[in-house]
Structures are given as structure tokens and as C-alpha cells.
Specification:
Elements lengths: L12 H15 L12 H20 L1 H4 L5 E8 L11 H16 L3 E8 L7 E5 L6 E6 L17 H5 L1 H7 L13 H12 L26 H24 L6 H24 L2
Helix pairs in contact: 4-7
Length: 276
């Protein structure tokens, strides 16, 4: 038998917060609680706690994995398909459900959640046997696409190159765009998750926003809020509205805006050339 040494003790969130509160009060007794900042050392500790937590799950996987069943959630609106492009959702859902039942049988429970909302909602995610482990496969609602695994992200080359449109909609993988619907990838990831003999944190990764550790630093906290509210949320609302009006791929809208901008630029150049 291999000897597995016990894991070193993990500093708790409570310990870290208490220590940071004391430090902030000492630095500036008048500092507002909302303005408290983590030291560089504590930011490192936050990451360490997250890594250790994942490792603990790994070591205790056999104990934890059967605490609950794997559940595939499919979320749709109660009112049903109220616009033309939603009419294909039922066929997609039936196809996926059929494949999941055939491959996994009773290993995966399937739940259709119906929400009382008027939006072209269609979201699919797997909640694994450890309740904190969730994989989102499709999100056509208010869930932004960066919360999905990268293979589902919709990319837009124009947004990578056009800085003006990038400021309006986001970068190449703009979070407000609808992700790709890829049944094959869904089944691949579900297979990795359901038939995992040991805990693999690459299968159920900690979903840091943007996969960017900078998200944990206080310096860009306010900027991130502003970008989220002024860029990503309005983009998603515009994408939803366009979908309701029959535009399935919002990149068509972006492409048209890009062409209009190019035409305007050509006109300006011609006007300068002939001094109109």
C-alpha cells in the first residue's frame, strides 16, 4: 500500500478575513469597511485555499462522489416557443435526452426546469455527484458565455480587429454572444464527468471569471463592474432581442456595422482627397 501523507492544514476564510480586518484598521482607522483591500500575501493565500480545497476533493473523491446523482438540467420558459427561432429547441432537447438516456441510463437524472420568463431561454448544465461541480453546456438566457468551457465559446474575428466595436460589444469571445450549440462536445464532457474513477479537477475546474486570476485583485474590481454593466449585459440583451426578431447569429449584425464603418471611412478619405 502506498502511504499518502496527510494534507497540511488549510487556513480558513474566516482566519484570513479576520487578519485582513485587523491589518486594514491598523493602516487607517477611518477606512470604510467597503474599501478594505487584500494584501498581496493574502491574495496568494486565497488562491492557495482554492487549490487546497480542490486537492481535498481529489483525496476524498471516493467518499463524496456518491452523495448525490448526476443531474442534467435543461431550463426552458413556461410559455414555450414564442418566436420562430425557438421552434427547433424541442428537437434539440429530444435528441440530447435520447443520447443521454442511451449512454448513461440511470447514472444521469434529467430534469426540465420551466421558468416563468419571457425570453428565448434554453440553458443546459450538468450538476455532478459532488454538488459544487457544475458544467454549463449551453446558455441562451442571461448566463454569459465565459461561464462555459472554452470549446463552446462563439468567436468573432471582427471584434478582435475592430477596436471601436470591441469597446461596444467586447473582445473576440465577447461574453454577450450566444455560445455554440454542440451536442457532440456535450456528450464528450459528460462522459468524462460521469465515468470518472477518480476526481480530476481539470474536468470540474474552479470557474474563475475570464479564467483570469486578476479577477481576485481589488485594483480592477470597479472597472470589471463597469465593463459588465455597460458592455456585456447590454450586448446580451441586444443578442436576445435580435434572436427574437429572427437573427440567429448576432455576428451578422456586427458584420453589418463593420461594413457601414468601412464605407464611412472610405467616404471620409475621398472627401479629404478632393477637399469637399
Amino acid at each position: 500500500m502506498w502511504y499518502i501523507p496527510p494534507l497540511p492544514p488549510v487556513e480558513t476564510w474566516e482566519d484570513l478575513i479576520a487578519r485582513e480586518e485587523i491589518r486594514n484598521k491598523k493602516e487607517d482607522p477611518k477606512r470604510n469597511v467597503d474599501d478594505y483591500r487584500l494584501s498581496h500575501e493574502s491574495r496568494e493565500k486565497v488562491l492557495d485555499i482554492m487549490r487546497q480545497t480542490r486537492l481535498i476533493n481529489h483525496c476524498n473523491y471516493e467518499v463524496q462522489k456518491n452523495k448525490q446523482k448526476n443531474i442534467l438540467h435543461i431550463v426552458t420558459p413556461k410559455i414555450g416557443p414564442y418566436c420562430k427561432l425557438m421552434e427547433g429547441d424541442k428537437e434539440k432537447m429530444e435528441s440530447l435526452v435520447s443520447k443521454v438516456k442511451e449512454k448513461f441510463g440511470r447514472k444521469v437524472k434529467i430534469v426540465n426546469i420551466k421558468m416563468d420568463v419571457r425570453m428565448p431561454l434554453f440553458e443546459i448544465f450538468l450538476q455532478a455527484s459532488i454538488h459544487t461541480q457544475i458544467k454549463i453546456f449551453y446558455a441562451r438566457g442571461r448566463t454569459l458565455q465565459y461561464r462555459l468551457p472554452p470549446q463552446f465559446w462563439t468567436k468573432c474575428k471582427i471584434l478582435k480587429e475592430n477596436k471601436i466595436l470591441q469597446e461596444k460589444y467586447g473582445g473576440e469571445c465577447a461574453p454577450g454572444l450566444f455560445p455554440k450549440y454542440d451536442e457532440y462536445q456535450m456528450m464528450q464532457i459528460m462522459t468524462e464527468c460521469v465515468y470518472n474513477d477518480k476526481y480530476n479537477f481539470y474536468v470540474y475546474d474552479v470557474n474563475l471569471e475570464w479564467e483570469n486570476l486578476g479577477a481576485l485583485t481589488p485594483e480592477n474590481k470597479e472597472l470589471r463592474k463597469i465593463v459588465h454593466q455597460n458592455v456585456h449585459v447590454p450586448t446580451r440583451l441586444a443578442v436576445i432581442k435580435a434572436f427574437e426578431q429572427g437573427i440567429e447569429d448576432f455576428r451578422d449584425v456586427i458584420r453589418e456595422e463593420h461594413l457601414v464603418m468601412l464605407r464611412e471611412q472610405r467616404k471620409l478619405k475621398e472627401n479629404k482627397k478632393y477637399k469637399f
